[in-house]
Amino acid sequence: MVARHLLIHVHGNNFDAVTAALRVARNSSTELGADVSIHIVAQGPLVRQLAKGSPIAPDLAETIHSGQIEVLACRNSMTSAELRPNDLQPGVTTTPSAVAFLAEQQFNGWAYVRL
Q: What is the C-alpha separation between 33 and 80, in angstroms, rounded?
């Protein structure tokens, strides 16, 4: 069987987009099955939603602890938002550049959805 992967990209100023991405990722995981890797990549001001104590922290923690969905924050965006990796919700990982990460994963055959 061919490996299947889904990227969900959230970017911009609409803080509801991260909540929507978490919901879309969970729904996609249910529909596509456990053998599909799902990564949510947050870029821009939205990385603030991935910080400890953010309004979506409980939903974010539940999604991460499902074990099927990985959430990544762009470190370039974190620098702009004055966030450090230890400011993020436990389980959120980082990538140096969201754009480079997204491009590299698409070069490797990942499906891409932007919310």
A: 36
Whole-number Å distance between alpha carbons of 23 and 32: 14
44: CB partners within 8 A, 6+ apart: 11, 12, 13, 74, 77, 80
Compute the distance between CA of residue 41 and CA of residue 101 in angstroms, rounded to an integer.
9
At 64, give phi and psi (nearest 5°).
-65, -40
Give the total number of structural domains in the chain: 1
- Distance (Å, whole) CA 35 – CA 58: 25
Half-sphere exposure of residue 55, counting CA atoms within 13 Å on the CB side? 6
Q: What is the CATH number of the domain that holds 29?
A: 3.40.1260.10
The rounded average pLDDT for each run of 10 residues, N- to C-terminus, in the chain (115 residues) is 90 94 97 95 98 96 93 98 98 98 98 96
pTM: 0.95
Q: Which domain holds residue 37?
A: 4-114
What's the pLDDT at 3?
85
